[in-house]
Hints:
The chain is α+β, with helices and mostly antiparallel strands. Helices cover 31% and strands 19% of the residues. β2 (36-46) and β3 form a beta hairpin. The longest helix has 18 residues, at 95-112. Mean pLDDT is 90; it is low at 1-8.
Amino acid sequence: METSQLIGSSRRPIPVSWEYELPDLVDVQRRLSFRTDIHTAVQVHVEGRWVLADATHDAALESLGLTIGRWDGRSDTEPAYQAVGPVIVQGDGGPGSRSLEGAMARIGRQVAATDPNLIAQYQRDLNELFDGCR
């Protein structure tokens, strides 16, 4: 299904989020104070039902063991990361939203407690790894 077909729909994509464990990809990340992050994908309305469309990783990153969301336009893609805890529809205000907010606050504190130079090194190493695959 082409994106242009979705744009004409009266139903907009709905963001969904969940906590996930960071995949172990570069050595420096073992020294980080955080091991999880929040991932967001979208649900789209197709043929009368909602399906997950997660296009996080491009095909070149499959060689790293990352999940590639191949979408046929009719069914769920495999999520880029497996959820640790509930999958939350953004803006629904339900009990899961509080859980996600708590996870975001906890991760924020962990990131704040991490040396900024270490985080910068992690980002550089990760980008270098990804660029090498492409």
